[in-house]
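Practice problem: predict the structure.
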Amino acid sequence: MSGIGPKTALNILSGMNSVTFRGAVANGDVKSLSQISGVGRKTAERIVVELRDKIGAAGAWEASSAQRGLSPADQKINDAVLALMALGFKQIEAHDAVRAGQAVLGPQATVEDFVRAALKKGA
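Answer:
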C-alpha cells in the first residue's frame, strides 16, 4: 500500500494479530485500526478501502469464527469451509457442501476429507 512504510507496517503487525486485522478490515472497523500506534483515522480508512476486497468474505468469516471460540469439531468444519471459499466456492455453497460431507463421512472425517468430498460432488 502506498503511504504505509515499514515502521507503520510493523506497528500494525505488532498491534493486533492477523485474524483480528483481517476481521477489522473486512468489517470496516476503522476505530480498532486507528488505535494502533502510528495509524490515524485517515490511514485506517485507506487501509479498509484498499484491502477490503482482497480480504473478502473469507477474512470476515475467519475473524468471526475466531471470536466465537469454536469446539474442535466445529473448527474442523470452519477450516473446511474456509478452504473451499479459498478455492472459489461461495460461502453458503461451501457451508452446505461441508455439512453434506459431514453427514456422509461422519464426525471422524478430517478437513481434507470434507474438502475432497465437496470437490468430488462439485465435479
